[in-house]
Queue: 2 jobs
Job 1
Amino acid sequence: MKSRTLKTCVGLVLLAALAPIPAMVGAQDTSTPAVGALESRLDDERTLFAATISDTPPDDDLLELGRLVAMGGAENVGSGMACITCHGGQGAGDGSGAFPRLAGLPGWYSYKQLNDYASGDRPNEVMTGIAQRLTEREREAVATYYAVVQAPIHRPLGEVDQGLMQWGGQLAAVGSAEKGIPACVNCHGPQGTGNPPSVPYLAGQYANYMAYQLQLWKDGVRDNDPMDVMSAIAEKMSAEDMRAVSEYYRRVENPETTGE
Amino acid sequence: MPDKTLPKTDVVIIGGGWTGLTAAYELAHEGQRCVILERGNHRHDATSFGAPEEHDELKYALRATHMMDVRKSTLTFRNDTSQRALPMRRLGSFLPGEGLGGAGIHWNGQLWRPLPSDLEMRSHYENRYGAQFIPEDLSVQDWGVTYDELEPHLDFFEKICGAAGYAGNLNGEKRAGGNVFEGPRQNEYPNPAMKQPVSSTKFGKAAERMGLNPFPFPSANVTQKYENPYGAQLHPCAYCGFCERFGCGYFAKADPIICVYDRIKEHENFEIRFQSTVMRVEKSADGRTATGVTYIDADGLEVFQPADIVCMNAYALWNVHLMLVSGLGEPYDPETRTGTVGRNYSYQTIASVDAFFEKEIITNPFMGAGALGVIVDDYNGDNFDHSDLGFVGGAYIACKQYHGRPISYQPTPEGTPRWGAEWKRAVRENYLHHADMVVHGSSMSTPGNYLDLDPTWTDAYGRPLLRMTFNFPDNDRKMAEYVTNRAVEIAQNMENVTSVASSNLAAVGSDYTVVPYQTTHNVGGAIMGTDRNTSVVNRYGQMWDHHNVFVFGACLFPQNLGYNPTGPLMGLAYWTLEHLKNDYLANPRPLMDA
């Protein structure tokens, strides 16, 4: 019921919302999906953060604004930097470790990360400044936008030691009784699907990014997850454990998170 | 004759749950070679209890996969001696464990201390209300150990669990927001209290307006990352709603595997043998000591394990069963009221109160934890004046949020049909708008409630089954009704409440049965005390008749207090171990004169 209302509301305003940015409208031949295509994914549970934090349906032009912010245009001259510069228009990111995949992350999760970057709860030299220059509504909008775009994973993903993969898969599935590491699947779900709204997916995320985040948790730099549970887990992991589980999840094929 | 006899060990421990693993930890570090015999299998939080597999309500909560196998051994049950007892062929009223960690794996983590007056129950009531106050048909006794003696041990076990809560009595200073009725604590809880959901917050506010003293549930669901005194590292609770009947794959609910076993398993003095079911404790020729235990091993062989000390750490009921089949102590005879083994079995009264909210109040019951909620303890123990009430004992009232699981959590207001379209509609409409309250009460012992061996039925090994003869005494029924009415009053005083319903499993006119789940708090049957004519073990947990047999667990409780037993029984375990280590080992003998 809720999702139907949500869709209808968005649909009603499409005409008005599209007017100021004609270049974006109906760009079917580009890789950027049209608003109509995105709209159909708005009832995906990954975007439901807007419905859970408030009973009011999202404003009609939220999605359009989100795409605008991603492109670098927003009220305070945007963030000064467009999301797409590093994360891509589809939220594909890259494998450097600095720029994670954003496509299909739960809207609430991305929104919270932006708030945490802005407040310094998740310190990051680049993202803190960007997030601080986004308005509350722009954070919500761009998080919604990236929740509904899709970015297929390009393969092959490169060679990896099979022993490392085996160990990573084991940590993911059953953790380690010896080290007291609980399994990732406890919270991140089977096949690394994530558990919206607050738990991100792991399947298809970049290995370098995940390994780096685990290290940040271990070092106490990042502690913005619910109950700080990731610090307690990461502290028990060696660098090899982190690498293993990250390389493993990078290679998990999961249509729900990789769009394949 | 056994199939084989093993070399002698210093200590043999029957059962690998909370008390057994703790005994092994403490005694192994005293240089004692410890062998634990566990009838179930190895399992571990990381490899055995991880979600999403563990979050299978049908498999674990309803089909009791972590619990004991009643096809091998069970008990028979009757309400009174006029009836013929029949075997309990499915788990129902209570859920004993099996396997590493025992029932400590699937507990909720509700971690209580006894009230000082609970431990001196008979003398306390007689002092306050007069010698005739306790009804004659109750065999209520003092425990033989005081709160002050147990306090350091209760404190230590809370540290082992990383308990979360707020002290209501810190070194004698009463503090609002905690349990102002509790005995003095030397320390604050090791971790801060849990975050409270909507329903229990509203309950707490209503109780406060009524002049009562609400406080957060004392919890072994850990609230922040924590290292216990044994070096175990626990993680913060995720409020996943799968505590009771489930193991915790998050390392967040304190359990005997992560808190104790992982920290002792590599020790040179420690050994545990799985699939090893103890048949009996063997006695010396003069009967004054035990020589070891005989068990069936994983290959089905009968093995004799000699030992200098025998620790009985099975579940409360099975400790009593083992004593009876081994001829330890003197069996209780309800006709003559002589003998002690099986005497003073008691249970726990449970009533529930449901409140339903207006639709704008959303309670999200799926965000739950085993010890999540707010408590009112004003009507527990002797925290209130019993002069004109005609009963002893009391209950705590909890507004709790354990879980919102699809099969078992279907709250509907009174008058709803029990099936069909109307029922479905009521479940849909009320699932998110419900407060779940329990009245968790004491149960007094009586001469007629007891445990013995069944004359007819045997277990898979040919031993007579344990026979339970039990019904709630009138005292408990009166108490449960009184406190349930107080709970209903609080529910009616909560804001935004549209209707209230209640149900009392110890109601006047109804008989106790082993079928509906009530609680896994079976206590007594091998009780402690200071008089060998009315107790099986002395105040140190040592058997009067066999001084090298030490007994652990809730079977020691002379009657049941209004609290969950794990905290009190672990306090007793550390108390027993202190005297075993510091007194008995150097000079094995009866620690009390008979």
Job 2
Amino acid sequence: MEFSDTFEIEDTTPEEAWLALSDPVMIKEALPGCQFLVRVDDDDPDFDALREQTADDEDPPTLPEADPEDIAERAFEEGAHYAALMEIGVGSVKPSFETVVTIAEREFPEMAAEGEGSASNSSFELEAGMALEETEDGVAVDWNAQTDVFGRVAQMGQRVINPVANRVVSRFFGNIEEQLRDVETDDTGGLRNKIRDIL
Amino acid sequence: MSIETIDAEDVEVEEVLGSAIKRREDPSLITGRAEYTDDIQRPNMAHMAVTRSQYGHATIESIDTSEAEAMDGVIAVYTAEDFDVPGELPVGWLLDSLRTPAHPILASERVRYQGDAVAVVVADDRYVAQEAANAVDVDYDRLDAVTDPDEALEDDAPVLHEEEGDNVALDWELGDAEKTDAAFEDAATVVEADLHNQYLIPNAMEPRATVAEYNAGSGDLEVNMTSQNPHLHRLLMSGVIDHPEHKLHIRAPDVGGGFGSKIHHYADEALTALCARELERPVKWVATRTETYETDALGRGHVTHAKMALDEDGNITGFDVDTKASLGAYLSTFAPAVPTYLYGTLLSGQYDIPAIHVAVEGAFTNVPPVDAYRGAGRPEASYVVERMMTLAAREIDEDPAEFRRKNFVGADDFPYQTEVAVEYDSGDYEKTLDEALDALDYDELRERQEELRDEDRYIGVGLSAYIEACGLAPSELAGQLGAQAGLWESSLVRMQSSGTVTAYCGTSGHGQGHGTTYAQIIADELGVPYDDVEIVEGDTDEVPQGMGTYGSRSAAVGGSSLATSAGKIVEKARQIAAHQFEADEEDVEFENGEFHLAGAPDESVTIQEIAGQAYLAHDIPDDMEPGLEATSFYDPENFTFPFGLHACVVEVDPESGEIDIERYVAVDDVGNQINPKIVEGQVHGGVAQGLGQALYEGAQYDDNGTLLTGSMQDYVVPKAEHIPEIETRSTVTPCPHNPLGVKGVGEAGTIAAPQALVNAVTDALQPFGVDDIEMPLTPERVWRAVEENGGGN
């Protein structure tokens, strides 16, 4: 299945959008059903250990509250692996996908990632890309995603899968859009300058 | 229009054969008293579930069963290495070019289709078993997949069985290539087309199921299963699980349809039997609907390029067919026969074609094994022939009915030897055509078509002059062609001393109504009341031998076997009667169940009375054994060749792509009819499935081999509202070489219907230049076909 779209955020700069979209915490919060999203050493992490480890974690602040320096510190890195636990309701079942994502490419203003998620008897593979472009009013986020779904979930039929995939993708970008708007409405000016400095 | 049924008690003995007697099996089926495999309960019975590959193609890196084993209620978890048995499913039809890679009951190194079995779990409870099967942790390394036979045969296609080097499963041809090439060189007109026959999911109403029970004391293993051929399953399973054939008891209780899908020997039934033997506990496995969609052998799956040569008078002079056929991931039981001998041999259709050549390449693909599905090869052949006949008639601007008539094998030309090995037994093709044209009021219909076009309404007429071959035979010929089984049928007819009859037949009905039709045959042969005859099938401990029910063989082969056994009983009874009359056998006549001396009809003895005498054995001929029963192994001398003409009238809306079926006329000649109501029912069911293929059905896989139509929400099985009223008519041209003159009707509708519909829709869309639309003809495809041709502008 392939998805692609472009959304625009007004009154922001590509740098601000870039920093926000590089923040694993913001991404975690934007992803529907995401239990945790943490950096891991390799592409075969122990999810049981991660579940325990992250059980009591509270998410640190994201933009606009967060210090841009902190975000830059924890930002996605090219070649790095991230583990996520995603609970997605599909029809009558709600599998938890143990997902590992690798940042394949990250050079301003473009980022690409690939990942695999597996749940009991179901799995998916994902390749996603994103590019930012400055527009008259703000920033255009051009994204695309290609997924293959396997196993039990795939068998629910395309009429079930497609809406679910659409829902996950649109809610994710909807959330991102909203969070970025928060950045843009923070009119102290200081934040914007700080971000510019970091980049 | 529809045939009225009658109660058996209202039928005179002399009219029992050929009467539309109500099916005796229906009351139990429709009141829930039928016993299906899943209805069987055994004390201490456990349940099996199967861990299946979620990938179309992958290597297995590791299998971790620990989590599943630790679950409450789980009795055992088995992977391939846990069973010390041959564990490979055999293929029952061999060809010179056939490659036979291993087909293990549990995959251990590589999975080749989504649904391939990897492990089994046995638990106290069905749901626990299923949950534990999901908890078996299989680490896969996914591989590229290929599902289309054409693509699978390309050089860069992912290879399923690496030891074979490529995906070629078989390479087969039939006919005279040289003569056919010459025909094309001299042709006045050549018509060519690419034709597709999509994958179909069989959709038997009852999913496959097995209940197995092992008696460790006696070593007997009883396997109740959804089978179309219990004796064949006994033979095959005996080898797969290494259990002596005489200690294996296969029983098919009531079986809810099969359409071919319950002929084959699958892994699941063998695994259930193995688990029962290992655990010494009864074990039940019932496929979920999802599992049937993942694992039941698919039907069809052909991509064909066909060419037809005509002379300047519109006579067919040559026919050349090149087909790529998918066999799926592994070879199923009779898979190699389906796209070869059950397909190529029917490519002469109803026509006198002097030169035919067919080449078939079979391909391994990442879909479930492809095998026989209602029609098995013959619908694919009929589709190619009848689509090409319609395209050729259009090309030379002849009426499609008259073009067919001109090329028919003449009524006086039977037996007719085709260019593709088979010899047609009997036929009268013009008769069914005329009957259909009369039913349609064809000339008036063509006029109306013209008139309506002026109003921008588009109706079309599609013809399908089909031929079918039933009762694959004789065994010697089948053996020469590669069958690893005989194709006779066995029966035992036993008259009890009270005069009632029990008849055992090696076929195994699963909805066809054999209990009714076979009883009609026996009642007619023995002259006994229909209600005094009981039919037993589907049990290897009760029925001495058998080959099963498939390929529309039951009436022609099983019925003939029963008639032969009954005939032997009459002869023995005649000897006893002659003994009592103190007369010569030749002078004893048999009529409606009574023996009498020629010329003295008043002094008679009934066959029931003779039966009593036969068991008393107080006064029977000196050299005669007591009892009154007979066994036959009937091996037909040829196939039977039913035929007919199906016609479809549609109105197509070119703006929406919607198709409205105005009329569907089915004229079938299936030889003598044992029970016209059952014949009519078979035609209805077959046409429904054929129209299902033409309009709605089709298993679709994505590039990874994942089934996209994995449920009945996504794979459209036609419902009553989707099927038009079917107008049935019949002609009767008896089979000349079996005792009943019957031919078979189980698959006729499925063979005839798809191209009748496609020919009709493309006929309607001639003003738009649309000559072909790939099945299923969804409104979107119809609309696109119109648009691609300029939308009529």
